[in-house]
Amino acid sequence: MNVKTKDKIATVIFYLIAFLIVCVLAGLLGYILVKGLPEISWKFLSTPPQSFQAGGGIAPEIWNSFYMLVITMIISVPIAIGAGIYMSEYAKQNWITDFVRTMIEVLSSLPSIVVGLFGFLVFVIQMGWSFSVLSGALTLTIFNLPLLIRVVEDALRSIPDAQREAGLALGLSRWETITRVLVPAALPAIITGVILGAGRVFGEAAALIFTAGQSTPILDFANWNPFSATSPLNIFRPAETLAVHIWKINGEGVMPDAAAVSDGASAVLILSVLIFNILARIVGRILYKRMTSA
What we know:
It is a single chain. It is built from 11 helices and no strands. By secondary structure, the chain is an all-alpha fold. The protein folds into 2 domains: 1-38; 41-291, MetI-like fold (Orthogonal Bundle), CATH 1.10.3720.10. Helix 8 (174-202) packs antiparallel against helix 11 (258-292). It is globular, with a radius of gyration of 23 Å. The relative contact order is 0.14. It is a multi-pass membrane protein. Keywords: Cell membrane, Membrane, Stress response, Transmembrane, Transmembrane helix, Transport. GO terms for molecular function: phosphate transmembrane transporter activity. Belongs to the binding-protein-dependent transport system permease family. CysTW subfamily. One of its GO terms (biological process) is phosphate ion transmembrane transport.
């Protein structure tokens, strides 16, 4: 068998593997959307859930999911960018740095249920915040930080040293080189990592069962006082997200139309992640063009 034949066989195998992956993803998404889209209506999206009767919606759960995501990313992204910059540009290459990187990798591989139990012990019990948006967001920050830190560090380390040297040669300080040269150049990879991290946060359930709770109080969307118990902005109230809601109604089985609600909520969850990813990439491209004058 000559080299060209081997190359053709390998090419066909790779195409088959790619086609198989696409088919599996398309089948999974198609199954969820085909079953869930018929259940979606304006009433379903704008009304609260019902426990013992049919016809409930998922409005509070949609709000809780996005609110939890925003708070988590507001906390985790700045910390991850700062830690990634330090690990890439300032930390010395020694056993301490290697140990920190190893610990970050260990934390990124922890099961979410373990992180949830840690958040339950620290934020819910020790800090006394009970089941709340804040407890859930801080737990998800711990869950999400290792991935974001490694993404930022790898994105910065992938930039050629010539760009660093060029910035310093132009008279820029080290910090100016990082903020004006390296970070803009690494922005696409950083945004990709942030999107992946946001997807993990948005679909997470196990960690939130123990920290954000499995219920939501009656919310008054006309009340935007963050200190009010009925305000959707209150970070000290329980907040059942979409993923937790799907798990709960399938586990309890007390809702007459549990299957229909679960199918609709799953479709909304998939579509929300898809829309978020698309919008995040559009915003990322705009920021990249402005920061690099491309």
